């Protein structure tokens, strides 16, 4: 098959190797054994949707497929799962039907979003001194404390016969990203670190390590 045709059938993931939402998608791709090519968004300050695979939200990740583009990590993970064969048993956010589990998922995603805002504010040169910045940071610290206290019991009640859950993948990407981007010290989250250590024995974790993409 020529490289051009292969490029057409192989999905293209648009993102950055340093992005936690991108890593969620990459871990799913590795777990589902889906081959893809990776296109790096070099300038996160660009306001051209074309730079983000057509995503009007100007966000990564995006997965371009022959069926169309999928915006956002959860959409992408679901599409990767649909393409996989055999399909692993995945626990999705809507399967978390009790408060402890669904709150854990909500707070993981909200922490990831808060981290994005803090990092983007820094990139844009917006000072740490604004009242909103301070509130975001406080909210992030509160959410991490809640997760430290509750994640172990939440994870313990996930269905044991699963292959993977969106909750575990996002929690892993969040905690390791806080360290990687030095947004918060993680020394005071021993339970979360223990979870990350255990989860990182998967091959998909090794294959998707955070790093800064080189500039062209
Ligand atoms: N809801 C989206 C959020 C994606 C997101 O916030 N991505 C970050 C990178 S990790 C981004 O594109 N940031 C650019 C910006 O905030 O301008 C998802 O779940 O994928």
Task: Give structural notes.
Helix content is 51%, strand content 9%. The strands form two sheets. The chain has a four-stranded mixed β-sheet. Strands 5-6 form a two-stranded parallel ribbon. It has eight helices and six strands; from the N terminus they run αβαβββαβααβααα. It is globular and about 45 Å long. Helix 6 (166-180) packs across helix 7. It has two domains: 3-87, 3-Layer(aba) Sandwich (Glutaredoxin); 90-202, Glutathione S-transferase Yfyf (Class Pi), Chain A, domain 2 (Up-down Bundle). Strand 1 (12-15), helix 2 (20-31) and strand 2 form a beta-alpha-beta unit. The protein is an alpha/beta fold and 216 residues long. Glutathione binds at residues 19-21, 44, 58-61, 72-74, 116, 120. Glutathione is lined by residues 19-21, 44, 58-61, 72-74, 116, 120.
């Amino acid at each position: 098959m020529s490289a051009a045709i292969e490029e057409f059938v192989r999905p293209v993931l648009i993102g950055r190797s340093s992005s936690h939402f991108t890593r969620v998608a990459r871990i799913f791709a590795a777990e589902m054994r889906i081959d893809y090519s990776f296109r790096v968004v070099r300038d996160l300050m660009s306001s051209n949707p074309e730079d983000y695979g057509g995503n009007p939200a100007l966000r990564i990740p995006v997965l371009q497929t022959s069926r169309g583009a999928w915006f956002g990590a959860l959409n992408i993970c679901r599409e990767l799962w649909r393409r996989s064969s055999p399909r692993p048993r995945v626990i999705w956010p809507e399967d978390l039907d009790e408060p402890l589990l669904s709150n854990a998922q909500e707070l993981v995603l909200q922490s990831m979003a808060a981290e994005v805002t803090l990092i983007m504010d820094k990139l844009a040169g917006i000072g740490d001194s604004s009242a909103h910045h301070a509130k975001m940071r406080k909210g992030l610290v509160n959410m991490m404390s809640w997760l430290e206290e509750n994640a172990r019991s939440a994870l313990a009640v996930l269905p044991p016969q699963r292959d993977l859950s969106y909750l575990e993948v996002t929690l892993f990407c969040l905690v390791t990203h806080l360290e990687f981007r030095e947004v918060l010290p993680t020394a005071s989250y021993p339970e979360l670190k223990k979870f990350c250590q255990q989860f990182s024995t998967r091959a998909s974790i090794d294959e998707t390590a955070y790093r800064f993409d080189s500039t062209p």
